[in-house]
Design goal:
By secondary structure, the protein is α+β, with helices and mostly antiparallel strands. It has two helices and three strands. 45% of the residues lie in helices and 17% in strands.
Length: 157
Amino acid sequence: MKTTFTSRPGKNGFSLVEVLVALLVISIGMLGLAALYVETLRLNRTAIYRTQAVTLASDMAERIRANTGGAAGYAGAGADSGCNDGAAAAVECTTAQMAAQDIFDWQQAAQTLLPGGTAILGVVAAGGGTPNVYTLTITWTEVSQGGNVSYVMTVEA
C-alpha cells in the first residue's frame, strides 16, 4: 500500500510575508529588551552612588558622635595628622587632631568612591549645653542627571 500526500489548495505552509512579519515582531521585542537592560544598568549605577553617599555620611556622623570632645575640631579643615595610621604607629592624638583626621579621611573616601566626589562639613555651634548641629554634604557627578547630585545629612551631637 502506497501512501501519498497531497496538498490542499491554500494550505502550502508559511509564506515569505508571514515569516518577515514574525521576524519584525521578534526584532522589536529584542530591541525593547536591550533598552530595558541598558536602563537597568544606568539605574543600578545611580543606586550604587547614592548608597555610597549615604554610607559616607553615616560614617562621618558616627565619627562625630564618637569624638564628643573634638566638637571644635570639626569646624576646621581636614588634615592628615597621622591618627589613623594603624596600631603600629603609637601616635597620641588630641580630640581636635582626631577630628581633623576624620574630616581628611572622609573627604578622601568621597573622592575615591564617587565620580567627582566632594564632602563638606558645616558646623553650627549651639552653646549653652545644647548639641552642635553638623551638616554633612556629599556631592558627586551623575551623568544620567546631567550634572551634580548632592546628599545632605544633618546631625546633632
